[in-house]
Each structure stands twice: as structure tokens, then as C-alpha cells.
Design a protein that fits this description.
The chain is mostly helical. The protein is built from 16 helices and 4 strands. The radius of gyration is 23 Å and the shape is globular.
Amino acid sequence: MNAKVIRTPAATDISQMEPMLPQAKELEALLSLASELRVKAIKLTANPLPGLSKSLSIILRAMNSYYTNKIEGQHTLPADIESALNNQYSSNQDTARKQRIAKAHLLTEAWGEGCISGKSWRDIYSADLIRDVHHQLYSHMDEADRVAENNEPVNEGHFRTQNVTVGIHMPPDAHHLPGFIQRWIQAYSSLPDGDMALIGIACAHHRLAWIHPFNDGNGRVTRLHSHLLLHAMGLTNGLWSPMRGLARTHQHYYDQLHNADNLRHGDYDGRGALTEQGLIAWVRYFLGICIDQVNFMENMLNLADFKGRLETLLLVEEKKGVSGLKSEALIPLHYIAITGAIERGEFKKMTGMAERSAERLLKALLDYRLLLSDTPKGKVSMGVPLHSLQFLFPKLWPEAETT
């Protein structure tokens, strides 16, 4: 959302950000949603297709980048993101800029997940970390891309030094940002593990957006921060993110954020300066989005259903007779999706084909990128190329589905 530099007074007292959480009497229904999310997410991360998880997580990072940038109105075609990963950029300057932005987000997400490995989710509530995420995001862009919507420099990795408005919302005074950030850290890092911590993630998402600590990139940083929190809690394993759901309901996403920005509505709306009911509605929306994404991926990773979709892909390609794919690849491919990488000789034996025919099929699968290998004679693992999504994971990323 665009920010406009202003010269009028803004919030200076951290109490103007209260409540940080709904009151205890309002938490019961939200705790039930959080519990549902936690149970479902833990079940998903122990999915029956571990041999597929690594390749799927790579393409999901590209999808997350697409969707978070779509929220900002700066998305590009999925195929253009794939090209950018191979350092192939459009001759159209605007498209190339969006490619760089998309690649930057993808690289930052991967960096973030690596950076927090082994850390507690409480460590993710850190002023240094959100500054580092912001710095990483923009350091992967060209100099020309590091300019905010108001033509001010982004100053990657640094909090803003000017007061701004975002729509009708006036974030806190720039000189008092450290105090607001410290209160944000204290409120959410001190929560108990489990369901309450999940409610904290939802509340922290809104309050960080409300603080608006940077000149530009606040939405992307806030969504990445929530993604990293869920990852640090062991609830994603690279298999889902709220970004897809937030983008697919992006107007509702903005509306819920805006509603939670409002001031308290009378004596029955909590005891803080901001609306408690707006915060509750936001938490309910955010947790619902997360549950929806987990449910979707659980269906996509159902063992029997995935095998059926894989068989459809092979039959369609075999009928076309263009790619060299054949249905004999079904059993070894499905086996790899379940167990992980295997030797090439073992793969060829599982096809039941003659040596030369099996070798041709193996090459076709590598060319199609349904199989991946680090070396010319190394083990083969399962790949998820962009052009396979319409068969293997239909409706996951509709914009990426090709004919």
C-alpha cells in the first residue's frame, strides 16, 4: 500500500498500539481455530511424499513470490519468474523490473529459512531480523528498483526517518519507532508455545503492518516475517504459506487490516486505543486463511490421488508423443516421490523395459524435469517443473498452468 510523506504529528506513545492481544474472555473461539491449524499443519509436515517435498518447496517459493507481489500490484508471469531464476530477463523494462522483484523475494525467503534454522520462534521477533529481511529483499534488486512509491530512497535495512500516511492510517512517529518495535517484540515473544503463539503471529502481522517501519516493502517484509514464524514453529516444512491465501482474497486482506487499524468503538470494544473487535476479526481471518491452505495441500499430497494425477500426466504426454514420456515411468516415479532419490539402474529396472528403452525414458524424464540429478550418472530424484502443475497439483497456482 502506498505511503505518503507528511509533516503532521503522529503517534508517539506505545499505548496507542494497544491492545496487543484480545482479552482472555475473547480468546476461546480463536484458540479453537489456532488448535485446528496446529494439528492439521503438524499432520501435513509428516506427509507421505517426502521424496517430493524438496522439489515442491522450490516451486512453492516461486509461487509465494508471485502472490505476495500480486498483492502489491507488481507480479509478473510465472514463466517470467522461472526465466529470472535462469538469469534471463525480458527486454521490456517494466517486466524485467518485476522479474527482479520476484526473484529477490524468492531468494530472501530461502535465505530467511536458512538463517533461522535451529532458532526458536521467539528469536524471530527481532528488530535486527526484520531489518535484515528488508535488506536482503532489496539487496537482490538493481539500484533503480530501490526507490519507494513516493520517489524516496528505500534505504534498505533501515527504519524510516520520516512520518508517513498509508491510506487514511497514520503510522507512529518515525523518531519513536524503536519504542513501538520493542513493545511489539515483548508482547509476542513472551507468549507460551502452542495455540497462543499462533494467535500471536496473527496479531503481530497486523501490528507490524500498523507500525510501518520502512519507507517501502512493509507488506512484503510483514508477510515474510509471518511465513518465517510459522516455519520456525515447524508447521510448514516448505509445503504451504499464508501468502497464497492472502493474495487470493487480497481485497478482504486489505479490508481486515484496515478495520483493525480503527480506534476503539465505545466501552464494549476492549480497553485499548485500537479496536479489539477489529483485531479479533483479523485474527479469525488470518487463521482461517492458514487452515484453508493446509487443507488444500493435504488434499494435493494424498498418496493415492497424487499417483492418479501422475499417471494422467504420463498418459497425456505419451499420447502426444512429443516429450518421450511413457506410462512405464509411473511405478518408479511414484516410488521416488515416497522414498526419495534412487540409483539410475534401479529406476530403469523398475520400469520393466529393455535397457535401451529404459535409458531413453530416463533421458526424456530428465529433459522434462520430472527427474532431477546433480551429476550425469548420479541418483535421480523427483522434480516438479512448472509445466507439470496443471496435472500434478491442479489449482495450486492457476496462473502457472499451461496447455
